Amino acid sequence: MAKPENMGNGIEITRRTALGGMLGASGAAMLGSLPFGTSAASAADNPVVKVYGITSAQMNDWAHIKEAIGITIEWTPTNDDTGVFIRDVISNNVGETHDILIFNGGTQTVLAPQGLLAEIDTANPNLTKWADASKDWTESALVMADGKTFGVPIDGNADSFGYFPEAIGVDPSGSEEVSWGVMFEDERLRGRVGVDRNWSQSLCCAALFLNHAGRQNIADVANPTGEEAKAVVDYLIERKKAGQFRTIFSSFEEQIQLLSNKQVDALNCWEPAVRESNKALNANSVVYAYTVEGYFKWGHAAHVPAQAVDRGNIENIYKVLNYFIDGEYRAYQAIDRGYAGPNMDLGVEYAKAKGWEADKVQSIQNTADKVARKFAKPFVNLPAPPNADAIEEEWQRFLNA
């Protein structure tokens, strides 16, 4: 797999992004679900590890981990909002009540220097699969800060868009590359495109397309300057006024609804939304694009809050961290979500040992190959780039146009 070497670099949380602005009511709503004041340690006969993490890192059924290592996972979900995550760790003391924090790789460069994360003990006897994992993952910017390891890489992918092949006349196998231009200016899809309200998905992917087409020259599409962001937003406003976009969506559930109800022909979405939509439609009705220009590449990492080290639950914490880079988690995440991560070979071995059907075993291998193919192309996401405030200001023009 190509090394995700730039994932998460360049994070700068300003007072606006960490404590206001993009946090708003959504942050308060999320925090309302946190069981503050409860103990993270558990009885020896029924060990519990409390995880606060991004929804897409969840397993569909946590009974698997309970059966495998005898530990119950209590999961508090958070959405894909870097400001909310940073605020909850810094200002709302989520580390006081949770043992593991899972979010987009790169946030550790903000949190670790403030003493909020514990350095990962890579020699811990319960972290048995660390040595098996490729350094492309374990020494990547997903988990490192100041030359030290502050996270365990657990999964990653390269996002693009879902589309109905018949709408654009391409091979339904989904193997050929399709341009991001399908989303932004293909006349066949006018009024049949959905775009993500998150600018890091929509604005940055449009920047990637415009760069590749030679119509803009943006030095870093993950961190455009205010002037560069203005040029991209001007383009997107023109396309919006031309009627290219049917809707601007906010949630994973909306992604599934829009695709499974065939309300759109193309949608810049997460791969699991395509998989879930195909369960409601005929298999392979919706294709997740291999693109000409590149991808929104990302990875999740699991971190140990500094407060958890001395709570008496560290052995169980490391058993869970190890589970995330062992074969069972790899296999299920590949099948259920299409995500890859460290030790994909162990995922294949696990599926074979459990007697999984040959097509499922092959699907795990296909996921590994797919992510390797995608990671060879440009655009690595930055959860909170230095120019975030200027980009957000321009993005509001698009939303309000």
Mean pLDDT: 88
Compute the number of helices. Answer: 17
Percent of residues in beta strands: 5-15%
Number of DSSP strand runs: 14
* Uncertain parts: 1-42
Side-by-side strand order of the widest sheet: 2-1-3-14-6
Q: What is the quaternary state of this protein?
A: single chain
Shape: globular
Described by strand count, sense and barrel closure, the largest sheet is: 5 strands, mixed
- CATH topology label of the largest domain: D-Maltodextrin-Binding Protein, domain 2
CATH structural class of the largest domain: Alpha Beta
CATH homology superfamily of the largest domain:
Periplasmic binding protein-like II
Structure characterization notes:
The protein has 401 residues and is α/β, with parallel strands linked by helices. It has two domains: 15-156 and 299-338, D-Maltodextrin-Binding Protein, domain 2 (3-Layer(aba) Sandwich), CATH 3.40.190; 161-294, Periplasmic binding protein-like II (D-Maltodextrin-Binding Protein, domain 2), CATH 3.40.190. It is built from 17 helices and 14 strands. It has helices spanning 15-19, 24-31, 63-69, 82-90, 108-111, 135-138, 165-168, 181-185, 199-212, 226-241, 252-260, 271-280, 314-324, 327-337, 344-353, 358-375, 388-400, and strands spanning 48-54, 72-78, 100-104, 144-145, 148-149, 152-159, 162-163, 177-178, 193-196, 245-249, 266-267, 287-288, 290-291, 296-303. A five-stranded mixed sheet has the order 2-1-3-14-6. β1 (48-54), α3 and β2 form a beta-alpha-beta unit. The longest helix is centred in the last third of the chain and has 18 residues, at 358-375. The chain is globular, with a radius of gyration of 21 Å. The protein starts with 14 loop residues before the first helix and ends with a helix. The model is unreliable at 1-42 (pLDDT under 50).
